[in-house]
Write a structure and sequence with these properties.
The complex is a heterodimer of chains A (158) and B (202). Chain A has a domain of 104 residues: Nucleotidyltransferase, domain 5 (2-Layer Sandwich). Chain A contains 3 helices and 8 strands, in the order αβββββαβαββ. Chain A is elongated and about 95 Å long. In chain B, strand 2 and strand 3 form a beta hairpin. The model of chain B has no long low-confidence stretch (mean pLDDT 82). The chains are: A alpha/beta (158), B alpha/beta (202). Chains A and B meet through helix 1, strand 1, strand 2, strand 6 and helix 3 of A and helix 1, strand 1 and helix 3 of B.
Amino acid sequence: MSKFKSKKDNALPAVNTASLPDIVFMLLFFFMVVTVMREDTLMIENRLPLADQVEKLEKKYPISYIYAGKPARGYEKYGEEARLQLNDKFADISDIQAFINAERAAIAREELVDYLTVSLKVDKEANMGIVGDIKQELRKANALKINYSVGTGSALDN
Amino acid sequence: MAKRSAPEVNAGSMADIAFLLLIFFLVTTTIPKDSGISRKLPPMEPPNDDEVVIKQKNIFTVLLNNKDQLLVEDELMELKDLRKAAIEFLDNGGDGSCNYCNGAKNPKSSDNPDKAIISLKNERETSYSAYISVQNELVAAYNDLRNKRALQIGPQRGFRDMTFVQMEENYKDPKFNGNKEKLKELIDQIRNEYPEKLSEVQ
C-alpha cells in the first residue's frame, strides 16, 4: 500500500498570490486615471438641490464655477447668510464681472470664449436673493449661458 | 574575480505598496457629476427699447413667493400639478394656427406654442431648492411635449421609438450610427414647434 501513498500530505496547496500585485496595479491605474482632484476648496456648504430634467454639462466648452451657500464649519466668522465663493475665497457680488473677465482671459483658444458656460453651484438652503444678484451681474458681464448645477433625483423631494 | 550575480530584489512588498496607493486614490476620487439645468439669460436691454406688447392670454405667470408657495395665473397650486398646467397652457393652440397641438383650443388660453411664454417670478426670500423644483417642472413640461411630438413624427423620418431627450443624447453621442444630419433636422424642427420661451423675471 505504501507504494501508492502520495508523496505529499493531503493539505490544500497555498493559493498562488503572485498575480495579486498585477490586479491591484490594474485597479490603481483605473482610479488614478479617473480621479479628478477638486479644483476649489469649498468654504461654504454646498448641497445641491435635486432635479430630474438635467442636461450634462459638456467638458469641451469652457466652464466657470460660481459657488454660493452658507459658510461651512470653521468659517462661522463670515456669518450665517449665504455667501459667494469665487475660486478659493469669499467674494462680493461686485467681484463677479472681474472674475468672468479673468476666466475669459484664461481661455486658451479664442474661438471658445463665446461658449463660456457659468455653472452655478448654489446650496439648496440659499435663497433666491443671492442667485438673482449673481444672474444680474452675469448679465452685466455678458456671460449669458448659465447652468444651475443640480443633483439627480426627484424634484418633488426638495 | 568571481562574478557575483546581483541578488534578486524582494518584490513581496510590492502588493502592499500598490494597495496603499490604491486606497489613497479610492478615497480621494470624486467622480465629477456636472449636470444641471441650462438656461440662457436675457442680454441687458438697451435703455430705450420699444415695449413689445404681448397679449395677456399668451403669458403664463408663475410666482414663487417668500414662503415657497406657488401662485400660477393668480391661483395657488401644488408643485405636482404645475407640469400638467404648463402643458395644457403650451399645447392649447387657441387660434387654430397650430396643427400639431393636442390641447383644448381654449380661446382664453395661449394662441400657439410659438407665442406662449412662461414667466417665472420669484422673491428674494424664495428658497433656491423650491426655485429649482419649479424650473425643473417647467423644463419637464417642455420635454414632455417634445417627447410626444418626437414619438409622433419620428417614425416617418426613420427614428422609431425615440423620444426627444433620447434624440438629443444620440446626437451628442459620437458612437451613434444613424444619420446625424437628419436627426439634427428633426431636433430643430421639434424645437421650433415647441420653443422654450421661459422668462425669469427678477
